[in-house]
Every structure is written in C-alpha cells, then in structure tokens.
Amino acid sequence: MNTHVPPVAGGERVGSGKREPLRAALVTASYAPDFERCRLLCETADRHVTGITHHYILVEGRDVPLFRQLESSKRTVVDERDLLPGWLRAFDDPLSGFRRRIWLSLRTQPLRGWHVQQLRRIGIAAHAAEDMLVFCDSDVAFLKPFDVSRFRRSGKTRLFRRDGALLGGGLDEHRVWSTNAASALGLKPGIGDGHDYITTLIAWDRPTVQAMCRRIEEITGRHWVAALGRARRFSECLTYGRYVDDITGGKGHFHDSQEFCRVQWDGKPMSDAEFRTFVERMSPTEVAIGIQSFIGTDIARIRRLVAGG
C-alpha cells in the first residue's frame, strides 16, 4: 500500500548553488483512543500553524479507516506497515484482558504502543520527502500563531537541548534511555555530557535521521528497529540528540532550550479555572498546550476551553 503524498514547496533551503524551497512536514503519531484529541490538533494547527507543506498522521493499520476522516489535500494518514518492517506485528494482549495492544517479533522484546509510536516517528524519515520533520503529539492544541521557520536559523535546524540536565537528580529513566542510545550508536557507555533532548514540539533534519538509522545498523549489525527494540527502554529524542551531538558534532543544527508547548505531564484533570490559569501562565515562547491524554481530562471540555468557552 502507498499512503505517501508528495509534498508541496514552502520555506527555503540551499541546493545546487541556488535557493530552493525548504519543505517542512508536521508529524503526529496517534491511536484510536486519541482520535478526538488528534482532530482538535488538526483544527488548531490548520488555524495557527504556517510554513508546513504537509501533515502526516502515523497510526496502526487497524486505525487507518478512523483517521482517514482527518485527511485533506495537506494531511495524510500513514499506515505503520508502510514505515516498519513486516516482522514486527501488533496483537491484542491477553494479559490486559485484550484491552491493550502488544507488538511482537523474534527480533525485539515485546513492545507497547508508546514504543511503536517512537519507531514510527523515526520510520517516516525514509518515506517523507520534506527536508525538516516537526513532531507534535496528538494531545497538543495550538493557541497562538506559529511559523515553523522558528526551527531554522542560518540554514540550520533547531535541536532542543537541556544542557547537563541528566547530571543532577531525577530523570532516572531519561538516563537509562541516554545510555541505551549510546549503545545503539557505538558511543562510550553512559550518559556522556548528560544533555536531555526530550520535550513536545521539536524538529529533526530528515537526512540526519536516515544517517542515524544507517549508523545504528552499521554498529549493531541489525535493522535499526531491531536494535532499539531489543533494548526496549529507549527514547527517539535522546537517540537523535546524541547522534547529532556525539557523532556529527552538531553539524547542521543549533541548540535551544526554550519550550514551544506548555504541557501538563501528570496529575488530576483540571477544573475550568485551573485550565485558564494554566493557559495564562504560558511563557512568551509557548504557542501550544499539551494535556496528556492518560490524565483523563474530557476532550469536550478541552475543546470548549480552547475555543474560549
């Protein structure tokens, strides 16, 4: 099956000695329980985001018909089977009473949906034609105008980085992910300089992602999906960040620690007043909010409040 749609030009890049359009894609990995959240993301992105040529929504095969409702001339739903190797397959998990999905293969440990969403985000680099990939979770809503040119500076792509954040207390899981990224990339064991690269609303250079995958396969002798899936505890953001900084020396990138999205990572559902306070406390650089779906805040309430109700 072929779900790729050729991109439309926009922005600028350098090529063959002349200025050519820089093409940037918005990329969202999602699944059926987040469909209405993803719909709100699409609506607010269409209203506020400029500079993108296409929006890819990456989902499991059985979710494709549902998400097709969100397609447009600039938005395509992509089946994960077009992105990941056929030997990684999804099943209903009997250990969860068949409520959850599990991805199994002989080459990886059992993987959950959040693992596979990360793999999809890496996999899209081999199928999209845009130069820059801007990642946005499906539980994000844009509240202010945002042009993706903010991810570019003097021909370089913005790499979100919190310098030395892993050297202090907390973020134990991030340190594990960084260590596993080092192993996959053939780096010295450990967290290196201890930088953290994880946040919501980030950009990657697509050719760099492809080079990262080749590096992983050369180092491990395995398909990049198998290499990451064997460790199971991995982060696509930390793997990309460490590749850029520790392998390429930051080539083609500039660093920035400013957040573009204000996120409620955990806690209880907010009251209407708490939601309004949450929005009012957005920093000047933040243009979107993210309310993690597992918190349980009703999407109808979020939609009403985002609309100013």
Structural notes for this entry:
By secondary structure, the protein is of the alpha/beta class. It has one domain (13-306): Spore Coat Polysaccharide Biosynthesis Protein SpsA, Chain A (Alpha-Beta Complex), CATH 3.90.550. It has 9 helices and 17 strands. The chain has helices at 35-48, 64-67, 113-123, 172-185, 206-220, 224-231, 236-247, 272-280, 299-306; strands at 13-15, 18-20, 24-29, 49-50, 54-59, 75-79, 89-92, 101-104, 132-135, 140-142, 146-147, 152-153, 156-160, 202-205, 253-256, 261-264, 288-291. The strands form 6 sheets. The protein has a 5-stranded mixed β-sheet with strand order 6-5-3-9-14. Strands 10-17-16 form a 3-stranded mixed β-sheet. It has a 3-stranded mixed β-sheet with strand order 12-13-15, with no helix packed on it. Strand 7 and strand 8 form a beta hairpin. Helix 4 crosses helix 7. Mean pLDDT is 91; it is low at 1-16.
What keyword list fits this structure?
309 residues, alpha/beta, Spore Coat Polysaccharide Biosynthesis Protein SpsA, Chain A, five-stranded mixed beta sheet, three-stranded mixed beta sheet, 9 helices, 21% strand, globular, disordered N terminus, DUF6492
